[in-house]
């Protein structure tokens, strides 16, 4: 089932959680709503679920207006961040809940409920724990019970509110891959909320980035990562080095160094911000030619991990982060306190007025 | 510490190791220091305030001899008073459990003007001297009172009748249920109800299957407190009941009557019966709570 929201506005007292948000989720897609806390992502999810009534706008399921339908009638599976399991019921009873509360003429027989619940528990790999109570399960197991419970009523749409937010890093990793596989298996239209950009980029077909109650950008994970529409998106989608400066004529001056400004930036003098991801900076012992560069002192090296992370201090005291592969690091034989040249492989320049201007160098 | 004491005990005689084991049994649940001190204070306090005076009741009751004891506690007037005391207390506590839950629900769930005032009013039966409550209820409910004048034509006699006793015992027990259920309702996660709704449950199904199991322990506690309070109540009942032997005489009043006749052995004998029945009832309620709590706590 496809989901569409149109011009949704939701205000809590003085705070506008959603401002004129529109969004389409095609049938069968797995979409991530990504944003920092307070960006309105959870509110949007709750509006779709019918747990929150929008002040303006409509929610459409398969192009039919569902705004007035209650949560109960929307047939939406909702998974809560803190699981919201019924603690006085066993795992089995939790999963069976949605089947047992159906009106008598729709309710399956006890034998069918038993069969269906055990199918779902097999799907979430918890068959052995059917008779346990939620308090006897780990966080990851509880979340899988919550998922099985939501799927029991065969919802048309699955909505997950920070599904892995309360779990530790390793379990998160496992569960999100598992969620991706599960989605591929059953093909249910799914929307999940997260503040973790890695999670969104890894799991989702499409990422919707929310900021202060508005959709900042939406697109495929590659798309939003490679072509961020605003400084906010660029900053939010990964570690970043930030250089303040100004554009003058065809040059951009960024304190330590200057380089050619993107052609479409105009001729006027305007303040600008340049962003460079740590892996798009390089380090040399000798002054490089052909690339914009500046001098810096190595302040800290962290070589534990897949890549080497190096923190440097520029001559003006600013801090710059560089990431490089281990081979390059061994080749350069870097040590703390050494003065080196940092060169820029690629950088993205935004005029301060937040209009988007690409800048390949 | 436990580890050290147990390894040491292996090298000692069997008697010592038994002592070490029983010691370990006592302290093993306590991570925090001060177990000895706090346990000592608890036992001393409960002994002085509760156990010693109650033991004295038993001893005093025994002074009349077994035959006299049995005669006193089984005479028709005493039996009638037990029926009234426990019966009216039970009805009052049940009424309070239902109404108290509704009051707590309204106070927690809905914002409305005057909510704080209503919240404060709930505590009034706690604070009011019970004699004042008794006199007020009697005045209002008597055949010429504000409420009683409308009840009288319907043939309802709300004072000097068992009904009056029930009303007084309901009045004094209300806050117990409200105040035990309120905090539990306050921390009840609204997500549970949202989850139930998204799974297709209606309001009533959600209440029966999701909310009420969470509230049972608190409701039972509130019921037990209101019930216990009602059994011991004296001040408000003596005014409204009319104190007619065999009809509207509650057990505490019977005890006072016997005391006024200097029949101390008889008074304490009836006291012992109340004590034993109350203890048994509270024990059953506690067991119910333990049983309902242990399944998923």
List the helices and strands and how they pair.
The complex is a heterodimer of chains A (361) and B (297).
Chain A: E1 3-12, E2 15-25, E3 30-34, H1 41-49, E4 56-61, E5 64-65, E6 76-79, H2 91-100, H3 110-123, H4 139-152, E7 157-161, H5 169-186, E8 189-194, H6 197-203, E9 206-211, E10 214-219, H7 221-226, H8 231-236, E11 241-248, E12 251-253, E13 258-260, E14 270-276, E15 281-284, E16 293-302, E17 308-314, E18 319-324, H9 326-332, E19 339-344, E20 348-351, E21 356-357
Helix pairs in contact in A: 2-3, 2-4, 3-4
Chain B: H1 2-11, H2 14-27, H3 35-62, H4 66-74, H5 76-109, H6 115-122, H7 124-127, H8 130-141, H9 148-151, H10 162-187, H11 190-198, H12 203-232, H13 235-241, H14 251-260, H15 264-294
The averaged pLDDT of chain A comes out at 89
* CATH architecture type of chain B: Orthogonal Bundle
Q: How many individual β-strands of chain B?
A: 0
Largest interface: A-B, 29 and 20 residues
Walk across the major sheet of chain A and give the strand order: 6-7-8-3-9-10
- CATH fold description of chain B: MetI-like fold
Quote the distance from N terminus to C terminus of chain A. Answer: 44 Å
Helix tally of chain B equals 15
Structural class of chain A: alpha+beta
Give an account of the 3D structure.
The complex is a heterodimer of chains A (361) and B (297). Chain A has 361 residues and is of the alpha+beta class. Helix content of chain A is 25%, strand content 34%. In chain A, the strands form four sheets. In chain A, strands 6-7-8-3-9-10 form a six-stranded mixed sheet, sandwiched between helices. In chain A, strands 13-12-11-14-20-21 form a six-stranded antiparallel sheet. The radius of gyration of chain A is 25 Å and the shape is elongated. Chain B is mainly α. Chain B has a single domain, classed as Orthogonal Bundle (MetI-like fold). In chain B, 79% of the residues lie in helices and 0% in strands. The longest helix of chain B is centred in the first third of the chain and has 34 residues. The chains are: A alpha+beta (361), B mainly alpha (297).
